[in-house]
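PROTOCOL LOG
Step 1. Enter all chains and additional molecules of the complex.
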Amino acid sequence: MTEITFAALGLAEPLLRALDARKFVSPTPIQAEAIPALLDGQDLLGIAQTGSGKTAAFTLPILHHLAAQSVRPAPFVTRALILAPTRELALQIDETVRVLSAQLRMRTVVIIGGASRYRQVEAMRRGADIVIGTPGRVCDLMQTRELQLGAVSRFVLDEADRMLDLGFIKDIRRIVAALPAQRQSALFSATMPPEVASLANGLLREPVRVEIARKEETAPKIEQFVHHIAQSGKQSLLLSLLEDDALSRVIVFTRTKHGANKVAGVLENAGIQVDAIHGNKSQSQRERALRDFRNGRARVLVSTDIASRGIDVTGISHVINFDLPAEPESYVHRIGRTARAGAEGIAISFCDGAERSTLRVIERLTGTTLTVIGEAPAPQAYQPKRPGAPGQAKRRRFRGNGGSRTGMRSAA
Ligand code: AMP
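Step 2. Run joint prediction.
Step 3. Record the structure below.
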């Protein structure tokens, strides 16, 4: 933390009062650098991730600017637009905006998928000072002119790398094309692969660049283990690991929504406090699950990759990869859920024979070799008959075999 105060950054009085009420005493490094540049009207390229205080870094200057011009937004018009890759992140940003604008009159509208479109349109009928949204639904409302971006003077693209990972590039381009040329833009991203750099180039004008070291780089290393186990043995392995109380707050990642439900069901039957969070859950179900997990009412949260993004829950003791992620890059994001805020963390991956190649890509990508803590023999149903035979061929051949083995498979 720096010695600088928020007052020294030149923020308006009502914002200082809100910061005071929230007990934010001094700016985080990204706030200390980004706020003066944004107040000065410059574009910004922020390389920082969740946990750095980036949300307040872009929110405070927007509120300062909007409050200085008391304009009433026309119906379906917004004065500022903040884009986030997931609805959870959009809701977290909304919460920050509400807290920091507590002493101002601001109309904020959240436009995200998985929530009532009708209510969002009704809210836009009265116009908005700030819209916080995810790209898909924002495009949807733009198309019907129920969201109009011609008056946006402040634009933020948050977690740009995740946006691109999730395939939002087309939507983003459509949204940016609808923004006025006269505007301030800020782009935040945890990483800066070439695609993000090129997006930033097209979006920002002579931006000030602020880079904050990744937490993972300064935090103690996450201990990474792998358990080689057949798919059919994963549930019992998970149950036996959870017998240890040291696994006090655990995220279990599965590759599919169906898988998440299945695992959650098994844990629940075993009397473990568990919640699942994935794309098929309603917004209120997801929020409740997160709240329960945060306050310790649920010991385990089973999640798919997309549902977990941007979620910052402290005190996660273990991340368990029930399945390895479809995209190896997601592995880094998954294990980053533990070891937050300088705490130590443990990640355990369950790896079926069919997932070995993914494991190798992950190890190459992260430059680490995971420590093997278990090597369970595969049950007969999954055992390769001939080393080197491709997985699909094995299964096809196996299905052709008698009934009792098939029973084993479907029980898995
Ligand atoms: P963010 O990176 O925006 O997700 O923020 C991470 C966390 O830091 C949030 O829980 C914020 O409430 C908190 N935070 C942001 N700015 C400050 C500050 N200046 N002082 C203390 N906490 C802060």
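Step 4. Note key features.
Residues 6-211 form a domain with the Rossmann fold fold (CATH 3.40.50.300).
The chain has two domains: 6-211, 222-378+402-411.
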